[in-house]
Design a protein that fits this description.
The chain has 163 residues and is an alpha+beta fold. The protein is built from 3 helices and 6 strands; from the N terminus they run ααββαββββ. The chain folds into 2 domains: 32 residues; 121 residues, Roll (Nuclear Transport Factor 2, Chain: A), CATH 3.10.450.50. α2 packs across α3. The termini are far apart. 17% of the residues are buried.
Length: 163
């Protein structure tokens, strides 16, 4: 009988250890979720662009990064991106975005979300444009995420929230 109790105690201890270990590894993995790091990098990209304009935008692109802007040819490389974006990002305009989600596999990942741009219209009054985007990111040797492909296009204004 004692032998059976010892075996049951051993089985119970193993099960408790397995459950505790599984829960702990889940917590550790959630804390290290690389997609959360990537979404945070996208939010930093937005903040940096809001604070620093064109230079904030360009600083988040890899040297070989490309943009696929709606209605325009492919824009390749940081200098070409700087030139292209400087025509759209003027002191009287703003662009903000919010990532919806992201996914990482190895050193590549993507984020997507919604954007809002404000610029002066032909009547010199603020005009709002809405958009959606996807950004493909690559982790650099210094472990920082940089955009390698960015594509956006316009979308209708979001529906007003019912109260």
């Amino acid at each position: 009988m004692q032998r059976l109790r010892n075996r049951l105690a051993l089985v119970a201890a193993c099960l408790a250890g397995y459950v505790a270990g599984s829960w702990n590894s889940g917590v550790v993995n959630a804390a290290r979720d690389p997609s959360k790091d990537l979404v945070a990098a996208d939010r930093e990209f937005d903040s940096s662009t809001a604070a620093n304009g064109v230079e904030g935008w360009v600083s988040h692109f890899a040297p070989d990064g490309i943009m696929l802007p709606q209605g325009n040819p492919i824009v390749a490389g940081q200098e070409a991106i700087r030139t292209f974006v400087s025509k759209a990002m003027t002191p009287d305009s703003s662009m903000r975005w919010e990532p919806i989600d992201g996914f990482v596999s190895g050193d590549l990942g993507y984020t997507y979300g919604l954007s809002k741009s404000v610029h002066l219209g032909a009547d010199q009054k603020p005009a709002v444009s809405w958009g959606k985007y996807v950004a493909v990111w690559r982790r650099q040797p210094d472990r920082a995420w940089r955009v390698v492909v960015h594509m956006d296009n316009s979308t209708p204004a979001p529906a007003a929230k019912a109260e």
